[in-house]
Amino acid sequence: MRNLVLILILTATIHAATLSGDIYSAEGSLKLNNTIIKIEGPISTQTMANEKYTLELPEGTYDLTATHYKQGKIDYIAKEHVRVNQSQTKFDLVLIPYELYSLTPQADPDLTKLTRQNQTTNTNQTNSNPEPKNNEQNQTGIVLVLGVFGILAIAALGLFFVSKNRNRTKSPESQESEHTIRIDEDYVPDREAREVLKRINDNEGRIYQKELRDSLNWSEAKMSITIAELEKGGCVKRIRKGRDNLLKVTSNEGRSGNQSTIQKN
Fold first, then answer.
1. Where do runs of H (alpha helix) occur along the chain?
2. What is the largest CA-CA distance in the chain?
3. Which residues in the chain are classed under CATH 1.10.10.10?
4. What is the signed CA dihedral for 152, 156, 159, 161, rounded to 10 degrees?
5. For residues 233 and 67, what is the distance between their CA atoms, to the nearest angstrom?
6. Residue 209 near residue 222 (C-beta atoms within 8 A)
7. CB of 161 within 8 A of CB of 245?
8. Dihedral of CA 84/85/88/89: which sign?
């Protein structure tokens, strides 16, 4: 009895063969991972393979089915009839898209039916749970509403600051036009005041105080006193421009050097 067992083991060992090969996709000849290899024949077995497969089998004829799944559905498939009759058999597998295979006469009706049932189940599950989609739509609507309010708020702030800056940059002339000053009607410009008026008139009726002081080579105190007298006499007007004063002749009398009465404008 023991000898019979040894003989059977030796016989199985002697007639064992290796079936192996690479696993390709018919689209682009890319190697496929996560492929289920199923063998049916003298023995039946099933294994998971990545890019290539190797099976130890007794010699004989086998039906080989290779299926590749993607997101729970058959993506690629191949069915082959293989003869294993030597110690090393090389047999590459080329899997075609399942949509094409399901149209061929050799398509397995049971496998096709199972795949369609899985697709129907997934569709029903998707349709029976519309809440996540509705929630996503609600969240999108809330984001849009908040975005519109944000834009309106930014626009309102922009208008506020523009209006504020306009008020700040309002010209001194417009700010000073709201009130009048008292003019010394008896004022008569002296020689130095007439020289100042002449320089201003020669410069088209306006000049900066520093520029005028430099042209006359006067001290700052002398210039300030003379300008103050001319302003009191209604001949010129001082307008603050940054760190300097813009001097303007205020009337025809000022242009001719005579006394005048003027309202600021």
1. 2-14, 98-101, 109-128, 131-168, 172-176, 191-202, 209-216, 220-232, 252-256
2. 151
3. 173-256
4. -130
5. 107
6. no
7. no
8. negative
pLDDT 10s digits, 210-249: 999 999 999 989 999 999 999 888 899 999 988 899 999 9
**Over the stretch 26-46, which tens digit does the pLDDT of each residue have?**
877 788 898 999 999 999 999
Residue type, 32: L
Q: Output the pTM of the full model.
A: 0.38
173-256 CATH choice from 3.10.20.30, 1.10.10.10, 3.90.850.10, 3.40.50.300:
1.10.10.10
Residues 6 or more apart whose CB falls under 8 angstroms from that of 111 comprise 74, 77
Going by DSSP bridges, is the β-strand pair 88-90/16-25 parallel, antiparallel, or unpaired?
parallel
12-111 CATH:
2.60.40.1120
Q: In what order do the strands lie in the sheet with 206-208?
A: 206-208, 244-249, 236-241
CATH 2.60.40.1120 in the chain is located at 12-111
